[in-house]
Write a structure and sequence with these properties.
There is one protein chain. It is built from 14 helices and 14 strands. By secondary structure, it is an alpha+beta fold. It has one domain: 3-Layer(aba) Sandwich (Beta-lactamase). It has a 7-stranded antiparallel sheet with strand order 1-3-2-13-12-11-10, sandwiched between helices. Helix 1 runs antiparallel to helix 14 and helix 2 packs parallel to helix 7. The protein starts with a strand and ends with a helix. The relative contact order is 0.20.
């Protein structure tokens, strides 16, 4: 299997880890990119564009990144806060009056980002058709009663996070999250990252599907207690219900799904686009751009929620919209922040080392957070840096 692209001197172990993903972990098609202090030091791709095809993965091939979307969407709310348009400590109902129903008056904007809103499930899941309607998801969340007292505990809002974020952005800006992102961030910066795939880019996105391979040796599945995968198999668990807020889940290869904008799950990106997005958050000197002020970086990575997660079962750590370095989502240093995508994708930034990382794949595994392919690449970067 040919691997294409380049690595800077000293980063050769990342290429070795990337090759191992194909040789031992079943990757069919994937790409990884790493920036350091705004300079690209890793840009690799290989395999096939489609998980079930033979056409080669090319420079610029993109894939759906699933929940890595959440880190992209979080940046929109944090940038609105940075610009003075959104108060993180205001009630959500201040911007979205209909949301106050069912005792949700005390849910703060902050609770949406730190997964403490108490709204990870819907009593009546949406159909795929309803989920693609930008009005139906927010309506369902606004009508939903909290599962726990908002602000008192945390649990991963796997799908409802997207509707909460999207409606807040609409109420503040008059645009959807995808529209605002395209007009204010990804369009001006020329990033290959879309929330709501334009028809003109549809030919660049490969087909995705489930793959098998060796089981992970780190992260959630290494813990002796009940894993998130086991909890997901229980139909009555919050885990299963949270991931089933859309039921059945839409076909991720469906053009209608890709054209829609679900800020929890369906951004499309190249590895380079995802990595440079995070590079711009902390300071992309190559593009003379820094999206987040130092104060906003601290908001993203300051611990807001930690401990046993009511949805993901094991311990998780969240800042505002981002998973933080820990057992569930190992990055580089304790100050790293980012988000994995269920089944493989990963994007994060580490301000201490100046690293920004992006990995995308067309082969989804059972993992929810600590995918072994992404983690092998992260370990290689960690080794290069001597961490």
């Amino acid at each position: 299997m040919d691997v294409h692209g380049t690595v800077a001197e000293g980063f050769e172990p990342v290429r070795d880890a990337f090759v191992r993903n194909f040789a031992t972990l079943g990757d069919r098609g994937a790409a990884v990119a790493v920036y350091r202090d705004g300079q690209k030091v890793v840009d690799l791709w290989g395999g096939t564009r489609d998980v079930d095809g033979t056409a080669p993965w090319e420079r610029g091939t993109a894939q759906v990144v699933r929940s890595a979307t959440k880190g992209v969407a979080a940046a929109v709310l944090l940038l609105l806060h940075q610009r003075g348009q959104l108060d993180l400590d205001a009630p959500v109902g201040h911007y979205w009056p209909e949301f106050k129903a069912q005792g949700k008056e005390r849910v703060l904007v902050r609770h949406v980002l730190n997964h403490r809103a108490g709204l990870p499930v819907l009593d009546r899941p949406l159909t795929p058709q309803e989920a693609l309607d930008p009005l139906r998801g927010p309506e369902a969340v606004a009508a939903q009663a909290p599962t726990w007292e908002p602000g008192t505990d945390h649990g991963y809002h796997a799908l409802t996070y997207g509707w909460l974020v999207d409606e807040l952005v609409r109420r503040v800006t008059g645009q959807s999250t995808g529209q605002w992102l395209a007009s204010q961030v990804t369009g001006p910066l020329g990033l290959d990252l879309w929330l709501g795939l334009p028809e003109s880019e549809a030919g660049r996105v490969g087909r995705v599907g489930r793959i098998e391979g060796a089981e992970p040796t780190g992260g959630l599945r290494a813990r002796p207690k009940r894993s998130v995968t086991e909890a997901y198999e229980d139909p009555a668990s919050l885990t299963r219900r949270a991931f089933a807020a859309i039921s059945p889940f839409p076909d991720q290869n469906d053009p209608a799904y890709r054209a829609a904008a679900l800020p929890a799950t369906n951004a499309m990106a190249t590895a380079e686009g995802l990595a440079r997005f995070y590079a711009t958050l902390i300071g992309d000197t190559a593009a003379a751009t820094r999206l987040f002020t130092p104060e906003t970086v601290e908001l993203a990575r300051a611990e807001e929620s930690a401990g046993p997660d009511r949805v993901l079962v094991v311990g998780t750590r969240f800042g505002l919209g981002y998973m933080l370095h820990g057992t569930a989502s190992p990055f580089l240093t304790p100050g790293s922040f980012g988000h994995p995508g269920r089944g493989g994708a990963l994007g994060f930034a580490d301000p201490e080392t100046g690293i920004a990382f992006g990995y995308v794949t067309n082969g989804f595994r059972k993992t929810v957070t600590a995918d072994p392919r992404a983690q092998g690449l992260v370990r290689a970067v960690r080794g290069v840096l001597g961490l």
